[in-house]
Design a protein that fits this description.
29% of the residues lie in helices and 19% in strands. By secondary structure, it is α+β, with helices and mostly antiparallel strands. Helix 1 packs parallel to helix 11. The structure holds flavin-adenine dinucleotide.
Length: 460
């Protein structure tokens, strides 16, 4: 292994995006589209983050299904929408408009039908192609392990890959690690979990099964009005067969009709930024996959001949650090429908963050529906400043680590809104570079105009 080396010309960029998940991909594409020489660093072997490496092959937050008018509304434009169109065109995702909201095994209630199931392997390949087309310089198996700060700016990143520890340098950095790894390493302030006890919502190891009898499952769910099979689980509990800390079964049909993602396991008391916790949760999760699958085969309708097709390579972590940003969205802001002249993103998704100790209990689920007399459902706006950390001038933080109350994170953390934030971050660093500004000085009102022109924002 080489020792740390000096920055080679080839390792010097206008913008380095750290993390290749939904928000990082959108950030890198937006930055490169505006002429910035842009690199994207990803610690695993594929781009896509939780969407592919944690097996969450199901995009939420890009559509909203109006149960009253039966209209499926697009809520996110820009890079997210282009990606979805391309996935549907290539036959590797199902258009939500084609899913019958009242008769499908794609989720648990009509509004979940607004999700977009896709083929994870095919999307890995598509993302590679898109990043190459967009001239983003890719680095896989490359982990950011430190940030050096000089006079209030990040001067370089220390990264590690098979070549050793390397220094990389850019004019601007975007932290899309989901965990605010770069911001925390650079000394920016952050919050983590609940303020009282720092506990975070449970983590999940996802797995996929194939050879499922979709019609049998659907028939049972419809006849018993039981999408989560709670009465079967109750019986199994009484018989001592079910001893998991959760008591609902959550599954979503993916691109192929017999393939289902099982989003059911819940690992409590896991800090996704702690190496020991992740190791234990991953191994316990894998043991739980086999245990749950045995139960599914024996007792759950439609699964008797199912086979485990895939177990996620990366633990699914919903919540870790949230930066202390230049602006912060509180629960009250979100519920009151506050609007911002520097709006960069929005979410119409539910408040969805299961309780850290009671994983089947989602304290705020349902509060998004008709939040007050005037509005049918919640639409939460997010201002530019939630991505601007303190103490460092040339860094933006995007995705699930932005500055919002954790209840708001429950609504914002899904992939459509995370990609919006990423696209806004990539667009913002281009604006900052043009004027030689600190990220904090970017004109948010102008940025919003640009994002409307890009087709990212609409519908206020
Ligand atoms: C179990 C589970 C189920 C979910 N279900 C859904 C769903 O059905 N639909 C939906 O839309 N959303 C769902 N979500 C939420 C959504 O997947 C995430 O919130 C979203 O992917 C966050 O995007 P992100 O880009 O901020 O972070 P991530 O997707 O976490 O991506 C971060 C990327 O950064 C990389 N990285 C991290 N640290 C470093 C580092 N130091 N150096 C280099 N790279 C690094 C990671 O490997 C990863 O690729 C779910 C989440 C979980 C955990």
């Amino acid at each position: 292994m080489r020792a740390e080396i000096e920055i080679a010309e080839s390792l010097s960029f206008d913008c380095i995006v750290c993390g290749g998940g939904p928000s990082g991909i959108a950030a890198a594409i937006a930055s490169s589209e505006q002429g910035l020489r842009t690199a994207i660093l990803e610690r695993t072997g594929s781009f896509g983050g939780t969407a592919v490496m944690s097996g969450v092959n199901h995009l939420l937050g890009g559509r909203f299904y109006h149960e009253d008018t039966k209209v499926m509304e697009k809520t996110v434009g820009g890079i997210f929408d282009d990606l979805v169109d391309r996935m549907i065109f290539e036959g590797i995702a199902i258009a939500p408009e084609e899913i019958d909201p009242y008769n499908n095994p794609h989720g648990w209630y009509p509004r979940m039908a607004a999700g977009i199931p896709f083929d994870g392997n095919a999307v890995k390949g598509l993302l590679d192609r898109i990043l190459i087309e967009k001239k983003v310089v890719p680095y896989l198996f490359t982990k950011v392990i430190g940030a050096e700060v000089d006079s209030g700016n990040i001067s370089s990143l220390i990264v590690n890959n098979k070549s050793g520890n390397l220094k990389m340098k850019a004019s601007y950095y975007i932290d899309a690690t989901g965990d605010a790894d770069v911001a925390s390493s650079a000394g920016c302030r952050f919050e983590k979990g609940r303020s009282a006890d720092m506990l975070m919502t449970p983590a999940s190891l996802e797995f996929h099964v194939d050879n499922v009898d979709r019609e049998r499952l659907l028939e049972y769910q419809n006849q018993n009005k039981s999408p989560k099979l709670v009465e079967i689980i109750d019986e199994l509990k009484k018989k001592g067969i079910w001893d998991f800390p959760f008591d609902i079964f959550v599954t979503v049909q993916l691109n192929d009709p017999d393939v289902f993602m099982v989003n059911t396991l819940r690992e409590t008391f896991v800090d996704g930024t702690n190496g020991d916790d992740i190791t234990k949760a991953m191994m316990k999760g894998r043991a739980d996959v086999f245990k749950l699958h045995r139960i599914m085969k024996e007792y759950f309708p439609g699964f008797s001949r199912s086979r485990i097709r895939y177990i996620a390579d990366v633990l699914g972590v919903r919540e870790t650090r949230r930066i202390v940003g230049m602006k912060h969205v509180t629960l009250e802001d979100a519920k009151s429908g506050r609007v911002y002249e520097d709006q960069v993103a929005r979410t119409t998704y539910n408040f969805d963050l299961p309780d850290p100790k009671r994983p089947s209990y989602d304290p705020m689920m349902g509060s998004a529906k008709k939040p007050d007399a005037k509005r049918q459902h919640i639409s939460i706006e997010v201002p530019y400043g939630v991505m601007v950390p303190d103490r460092v001038g040339n860094l933006l933080v995007t995705g699930r680590a932005v500055s919002v109350d954790r209840e708001v994170l429950g609504a914002l953390r899904v992939m459509g809104p995370c990609m919006m934030l990423g696209e806004a971050a990539g667009t913002a660093v281009a604006a900052a570079k043009e004027k030689g500004q600190r990220c904090a000085d970017v004109n948010g009102k102008e940025l919003r105009k640009q994002l409307i022109e890009r087709g990212l924002l609409f519908g206020r």
